[in-house]
Amino acid sequence: MDSKMQESTLLQMRHIEKRFPGVLALHNVDFTLRKGEIHALMGENGAGKSTLIKILTGVYQMDGGVISIEGENVSIRSPQDAQNKGISTVYQEITLCPNLTVAENMFIGRESGAWIKRKDYEQRADEILKSLGIPARSTQQLGSCSLAVQQMVAIARAVDMKCKVLILDEPTSSLDDKEVNMLFDLMRDLKKQGVGIIFVTHFLEQVYEVSDRITVLRNGELVGEYLTEDLPQVELVAKMIGKELDELSALGEGEEEKESVKEVFYEAEGLSSSDAMPFDFCIHKGEVNGFTGLLGSGRSESVRAIFGADKVNGGAVKIKGEPVKITRPIDAMKHGIGYLAEDRKRDGIIAELSVRENIILALQVMNGFFKPISRSESEAFADEYIKVLNIKTASRETPVGSLSGGNQQKVILARWLLTHPDYLILDEPTRGIDVGTKLEIQKLVLKLAEEGVSVTFISSEVEEMLRTCSRLIVMRDRHIVGELKGRDLNQSQVMKTIAGGEA
Amino acid sequence: MKKEKTKFFSTGLGQLTIPLVAIFLLVIFNLIRDPSFFGIVLGHNNDGNIVLSGNLISIINGASELAVLAMGMTLVTAACGGQDISVGAAAAIAGSVFVKVLKSGGSIGGGKVLIAFIAACVVAMLFGTFNGTLVAVFRIQPMIATLILYTCGRSIAYWINGGATPTVSSPIITAIGGFIPGIPVPTPIIIVVIVAILFKLVFHFTSLELFTQSVGINGSAARLNGINSTFIKLLSFIILGVCVAVSGSIGVSRLGLINHETLLLDIEMDTILAVAIGGNNLGGGKFRISGSIIGAYVIQMLTVTLYAMKVSSTDVKAYKAIVIILLVVIGSPVIKSRFEKLMSRFKNGRSEISAKGAGES
Amino acid sequence: MKKDKMTRREPLTDTQLLMSITIGIFMVMYILAMILFGGGFLHAQQIFDMLNDNASLIIVSCGLTIVMIGGGIDISVGAVTSLVVMSCVLYLNNGGNIFVSILLALGIGLAFGAVHGFLISYLEIQPFIVTLAGMFFARGMTTILSVNPQKIAHEGFLKLMDAKLEIGWLGYVAKNGNKVPARIELGVIVAIVCVAVIFIVLKYVRLGRNFYAMGGNQTSALMLGINIKRTRFLSYLISGLLSGISGYVFMMHTGAGNATNAAGMEMNAIASSIIGGTLLTGGVGNVIGTFFGAMTLTTIKKIVVSSGLNDPWWQSITTGGMLCFFILLQSVVLGRRAAKKKN
């Protein structure tokens, strides 16, 4: 029995540790992949699944643990090294060259000899594309293909490289149903050939359709490994979202019913943007509500539309009953809306600028170009918020990029608090930060609400949202599928709605 | 790559380290070579004015046009992540306009000089707007966009001058290019100080500095904070236009004539160098105007030192190149991170080993 | 069979599209010039003159195109050309041997390319600054070698210089009734060989395709298993080598070394590459396009002269205008393509 286990085990990762400045990204994580298996790796933002994948593909080096492939201990030093060891990855972002042809993309970096055997490659590429049913021609410029086809070309490349382990990182997020089915056929085909597939996705239905086993991570730790057929969907959601931090459950209870008497602050009807489907939404003064749903359900896109962060396509928006037009972030800011973006690094911090400059940025923009905040004033602001939010920084002039994730987040919070917004949108403010800071941020949200600020709060952890929000808007597949408040505001109801079992 | 660079600039003396060290080394070198090199003499010039003279003065004086351009270039670099290579050609145009207005009949008085300068400014700002539009609106890389004006700018100057090299002789112009009677400091130095103060005032009375850096470092975040990055980029080119007009006018006043072919020839290269030596990332982002000014003086001091060593004016470039390469190699991210690694291994050797041991157990 | 060919026809790649636009505009311009000005434009010699005068520009532009396809820039090419001319002239005038002089030219070019490549790819210094320093160094060295123009006096070389390919049937009858055959300098043949070789390298050799991959998306190229540092190093090395060849060709054309040789050639080379459809962002471009870019640039100048606008400043103004036109055209064409794809 034991030896048989050994035989079928393709990849084993044991006690994996990974630390980033200020955050323990992975702690004692085990992962096992068998031959001819489709293994779904599940977890919400910050659960550590992308870190795990990056360790496996040689992008990051682990701080501790052992990786073995077919029983042999290996160390993976670079993406190339991973490829040589039979680990191929297809990322959500296409890592191919759009200016080359499909055939070139499939064979580049792994041919021998100085000359390009163009005809040969094109013929082989056409064969592979045909056998996998990929609707692309080998001579086509990759950039002229749809994203879905580009993704499949990347898979075709990996398949042709005779990989043992194929990692598909969110491969279906840009595919339509037909294409997804094509991909699944392809995956089942590969499975028969004995390839082990690690499937990372946030679409639950797809997990149940195609995978054999599920490993769930949460907060950088292993929750468990399950056979797909033994794990009902609702339970999976529960395991991903987790029930923890009981110490905090006392926070903010019994406040829910007040909001009905308060005036409506913001109201949108049929609001849509280049990334968000039309939706209706409103928030009252001093209310804390939340958008929930899994990653990719459209919750971030919706709040971005409210702030005018993406191109707004249509819809009527009213603030305090007055119709307004919000098409750019500055419009939203002038109407007292603040937005803490989901991707802190890309959309939040100005890494090389100091904590002080980052804090005053939004207020400065609102004050206008010709009314700069004086040095002493800005220092006072910075000092105040460093103290209020307990930001751990060497000084107010430290570049914000050198702070830990949680403190960077607090700096951005400070930036928006300084503008004294009437309505604050917080998209994943607690992502990737330590537990203590999470608690501080939740407390702050409730305090703001008491002061009359409306807050929309998004978090991957439902517990957190239940504690802070008095109303939850549930999204699935880019549509609002339910709104929970009062008595319905409990974990099982939320999970049922998210998983698609709403009454 | 960008990350590594910023890490280096954010510590200690920061980005001013390299230019200051360069100046320091040059000073030491010159003092050893010739202790009287930096002697400053108060004497009389041909017009009978009391003036300061000496190598130090001529270095600071000679770098004036470069320093002014470097200030504007810093802003463009920071906002757009690229450089304007047309500043020399644009300065020739601005200088030509300056002369054209001065020579448009009547005697040259103070008012007329002012009008001529304003005209030069307007024209240079228009060309700046042209470059800026290509960069900010059409999203063409600055170097390519400004290649257009680089190619034809001096010809436009030629056309303005009607193919000649008109001269202007007026005590006011002589004073701008040389000395104002009664003030022993060369006027171009005073102009540089004024421009630097103006920059300081602009940074004090507007949010230009914060917005430019935000746009240059993280355009996406800047947009989500309501900053209009197109406007900021365009503005940086327009401000550079003013700098171009100032340095063009200084250049013309020094010689008392406009030669479209030689006025501030090749200065674009020196300007970009000054910005780089000043520790500013040519890929945009955080900047320090003071670094670029010091960078300009480093370049000029290097040139004058080489002249003093009897290197001919045409050969100077070769030696300059060697010094530049040395400076950028020292400042290169790879060398820097190697050095930092070496230092940290030296410092934390022990703690690292023990941490590793704990991780494995 | 025929049908199969029809269905396999692909839409043009960005590179092909931009190149076609350039060739098209060049043709239209040249034909217009033939109709409007006649005269010289009707003789084949006009084309050959353009080639004779621009052989070295074409060669350096090819090198620059490779660097730009890889996403870099090399502004030292003109200065290196000038240094090579001066070094070889002095060497030959001091009793050197032609064969060694060729090696000298190639050696200088390669040395510059290797240093640039090393500093840029292995020490990660910005290409603009490195090649700017290279340009300063080469210009400075040229004047250190000699400030005064040096005319070549080596007999063997003078013979080589005078060697011209004469094609009788492409010639024309001059006013005095003499038949003048079309004359092509050896340098043109070198230039055409360079264009052909680089075309083949870019299209059929792995290294060439790696340049495109690197310029197209550097992270992807790395993920696909390409040695980025070595590829980048080689792009500058090739550019240096071509600057060396260009210097020798320049010398064969002018027969003299002068500190102001090839002044401004780097910008003309950049302009040729851009007009030929090379994007400074990398990944898109082609030497055939660059060749036509250089020819377009020259034709414009010839047309300006033929229009009676003899002042030299007209040439650079039209060149600037032409550049502006091409840059905006490319920006618009590619922008529309991207927008179309999104929908």
CATH architecture of the largest domain in chain A: 3-Layer(aba) Sandwich
Helix content of chain A: 25-40%
Spatial strand sequence of the major β-sheet of chain C: 1-4
User: Total number of helical segments of chain A?
Assistant: 18
Name of the level-1 CATH class of the largest domain in chain A: Alpha Beta
Count of DSSP H/I helices of chain C? 14
Multimeric status of the protein: heterotrimer
Please report the distance between the alpha carbons of the first and last residues of chain C: 34 Å
Question: Which structural class matches the secondary elements of chain C?
Answer: mainly alpha
Give an overview in words.
The complex is a heterotrimer of chains A (503), B (361) and C (343). Chain A has 503 residues and is α/β, with parallel strands linked by helices. In chain A, 36% of the residues lie in helices and 25% in strands. Chain A folds into 3 domains: 2-241, P-loop containing nucleotide triphosphate hydrolases (Rossmann fold, 3-Layer(aba) Sandwich); 244-336 and 423-428 and 458-503, Rossmann fold, CATH 3.40.50.300; 340-420, no CATH class. The radius of gyration of chain A is 24 Å and the shape is globular. A 6-stranded mixed β-sheet of chain A has the order 6-7-8-3-9-10, with helices on both faces. Chain B has 361 residues and is mainly α. Chain B has one domain (2-347): ABC transporter involved in vitamin B12 uptake, BtuC (Orthogonal Bundle). A two-stranded antiparallel ribbon of chain B has the order 1-2. In chain B, helix 4 (64-80) crosses helix 10, helix 4 (64-80) packs across helix 13 and helix 10 (208-217) crosses helix 12. The radius of gyration of chain B is 23 Å and the shape is globular. The two termini of chain B are 35 Å apart. Mean pLDDT of chain B is 87; it is low at 1-12 and 350-361. In chain C, helix 4 (77-93) runs parallel beside helix 6 (127-145) and helix 5 (98-122) runs antiparallel to helix 6 (127-145). Chain C has 343 residues and is mainly alpha-helical. Chain C has a domain at 44-262.
